[in-house]
Structures are given as C-alpha cells and as structure tokens.
Amino acid sequence: MSGPELRAVIADDQALVRTGFGMILAADGIEVTAEAADGAEAVDAVRRTRPDVVLMDIRMPGTDGIEATRRILTEAGADGPRVIILTTYDLDHYVYAALTAGASGFLLKDVTPEHLVASVRLVQSGDALLAPAITRRLIERFAHREEARPAAGPHRDLSDLTPRETEVLRLLATGLSNAELADRLFLSPTTVKTHVGRILSKLDLRDRVQAVVLAYETGLITPGGTD
Predict the structure, then answer these.
(1) Of 128, 122, 155, 117, whose CA–CA distance to 23 is shortest?
(2) What beta strand segments (E) does the chain contain?
C-alpha cells in the first residue's frame, strides 16, 4: 500500500467496470466506500459515505454523470470530493460540460491500473488531472458549441484579479505549465505557483482545469486564439 488512505465512490452503469476499478483501487489501499449504477445513486452514495474522490461515468440511465457531478459539488461546496469523469472517448463532447460542472479531470475507461491509481491520488492532493495542453485542446474543440455550454454560473467577474494575475490566467489558458509560465514571465516557479493559487482562491475555483474553462467562458481567451 502506498500513500495516505483515500476513500472513493465508483459510479458506472456497467457492473464489470465498477468491480474492476474497485479491485484496482483496493489493491493499492484506496477504500471504495460505495458503488453506484446511475447518477442519483452516486449523489446518495457521496452523501452517505463522504469520499475523497468520485469516479463518475458520464452516460448513465436516469441522472447522468454531468448532473450528478453538479449536484454533488454544489451541495458539498469546498469540502466536497474531487470528481474524475470516466469516458470512452478522449474528446467526448460531454466532457466539456462535465468540467464546467466542477469535475477535476477525466480518464478513458481503458486506463491502465497504474494510471488509475495515480490519477485518484493526484486529484485528491488538489492538482488537476489534465495536463494544460490537453485541457486547451479539449476546450478549444468544444467551447464554441452552444449545446456544450452550461448556464452561466457564479464567479464570472475577473475584476478582483490584479493585472499580473490576469496575465497569468491568460497564459495558463493557452496551455503553459507553471515552469513555462515562469520562463515566459521571468518569475520564479514559486512565485508563479503563488499567483495561480491566488487566482483559484479569488475566483473560488477548485483547480487549474476550472481556471482554463473560466478563461474561455469570460472571453479572456477565445477558441483558436493564441497568447
């Protein structure tokens, strides 16, 4: 067993997927507190067991994974679990909506056991699962599609950001890592990390995935645009 003990809920309408993922997580010391076959069951499971991470399928009967993610994170607030979206396709058009609902990233269902475990531990620690460049590719492809856009939510005002923080957010949304941001802005990696942390705090965002989404939704950067 490696790392601290974690608790997870697995939501997928395929029993084989739930069982397989559960065995992988349990083998690494991650406790599966509940399984759910649809979104409504997932919401209930989170209420009952208060996990650290939820593995959430998108396409489930009844309440789908997007709505379940929105309900879970709205209800739990800042103390809620991290949600990892499970999808069959790497650029499933539902993924954009799931990320705007508050998910911390996504995984393909054919993920290797090692990557699955590493991903659960990564998002629980507070990091976003998607690399910035992958996030940008995803959002640029779907951000312009009206059917992918959820209703406008809170925290859309960027006026609380300083000019430097706005610049960092704009560059972050183009797919730059913290190290690349440091090089571009002639700052230390520690200073960049501090700026990113302040941006997330001021905008009440969970991670840099949501920061990238917000940069597109507010028009700070546009699909296909460059810095």
Answers:
(1) 117
(2) 6-11, 30-36, 53-57, 82-87, 105-108
Q: Based on the number of CB atoms within 10 Å of its own CB, is 208 exposed (0-12), middle (13-18) or buried (19 or more)?
A: buried
173-191 pLDDT, tens digit per residue, is 877 778 889 999 999 989 9
Q: How far is CA 74 from the centre of its chain?
A: 14
Terminal CA-CA length for the chain? 43
Rounded to whole angstroms, how far apart are CA atoms 10 and 102?
Answer: 17
* Residue 124: Cβ within 10 Å count: 21
What is the value of pTM for the model shown?
Answer: 0.69
CB 102 within 8 A of CB 71: no
Per-residue model confidence as pLDDT tens digits over 25-39: 999 999 999 999 999
Q: How many CB atoms lie within 10 A of CB 158?
A: 18
